[in-house]
């Protein structure tokens, strides 16, 4: 497995976690925030693929929105934010996606 590439923000958060290691709640909260930042991007990428390839149809859904709501338990507004953020990164900052 290759070396893990950290974004500048991720590195700063890791450094901060080490600096506050004597405060377990603070370090744990920082760790969870780092994990969230990675996972939302992974989810947004997956949603972009599912929407673009219309694979929800293969899974018995008539539209993308009901698929997200019924199977993933995500509100339309949440999905729209994830897709919008991902598309912005794809066009404006593709290196962020590559590093993630």
Name its key features.
single chain, mainly alpha, 0% strand, disordered N terminus, 5 helices
Give the structure's gist in a few sentences.
The chain is mostly helical and 100 residues long.
Work out the number of β strands: 0
The global form is: elongated
Instruction: Report the C-alpha radius of gyration, rounded.
Output: 17 Å
The whole-number mean of residue pLDDT values reads 87
> Helices and strands: which structural class?
mainly alpha
Report on this model:
By secondary structure, this protein is mostly helical. The protein is built from 5 helices and no strands. Helix 2 crosses helix 4. The two termini are 15 Å apart. The N terminus is likely disordered.
Per-chain topology:
Elements: H1 8-19, H2 24-53, H3 64-70, H4 76-92, H5 94-99
Helix pairs in contact: 1-2, 2-4
């Amino acid at each position: 497995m290759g070396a893990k590439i950290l974004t500048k923000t991720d590195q700063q958060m890791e450094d901060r976690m080490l600096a506050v290691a004597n405060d377990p709640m603070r370090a744990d909260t920082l760790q969870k925030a780092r994990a969230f930042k990675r996972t939302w991007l992974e989810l947004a990428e997956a949603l972009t693929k599912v929407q673009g390839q219309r694979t929800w149809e293969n899974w018995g859904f008539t539209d993308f929105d009901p698929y997200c709501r019924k199977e993933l338990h995500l509100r339309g507004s949440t999905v729209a934010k994830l897709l919008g953020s991902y598309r912005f990164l794809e066009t404006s900052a593709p290196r962020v996606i590559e590093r993630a």
